[in-house]
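Hi U.,

Before I forget, here's the chain from the pilot set. I'm dumping it here mostly so it's searchable later in email.
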Amino acid sequence: MLVINKLLAKISFTIALVLIALWVFTPLWHSAAFSLFVMLWGFITLSSLYRVTPLFVARNPITDLLKRDVNQLALISLAGLFDFKRKAEFVLIGQIKQIEIGEGIIHVTNINEQKSTAILSVRSDIIKSHLEQLLSERERSKIDIRLQLN
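Structure:
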C-alpha cells in the first residue's frame, strides 16, 4: 500500500502541474468551472503528497489502527483523503483462522471465511511485531499468520 501511495502522489502531482500550466498559459483561467477543477485537484494532490510524509505515519500510529479488546481484534482502516478513517471492524480472536500481513495492509479471515481488511500506514514488519504484542503465544499458535509476498 505504501508503494501505491507513492505512485499516486507522483501521478497526482504531475497532473496538477499540467492543470496549473493550462490554467496559467491558456485562456482557461477565465472559466470558473476549470478554476474550480484546478483547486479541487490541488486539494487531492495535497492529500496524496501528505500520505507519503513521515508526519502522516506519526499521526496514524499502528496502536491507533490495530487494537485489542478483551476477546476482539479491532481493525481501523485509513480511507480517503488526509487522515480520514473508517469505522472499526471487530473480529473475535477465537474465530480468527488466518492473518495475512502485507506492506501497509492486513487481511484477517475468520472460520466462516469472512475477510476483514485494514489499510495501515506502516510496513509489514511493524504490523507483525504489533500483532505479537496484541496476541498471546497461545492465540498466535492457533492462527495462521503469513507475510504477503509482493
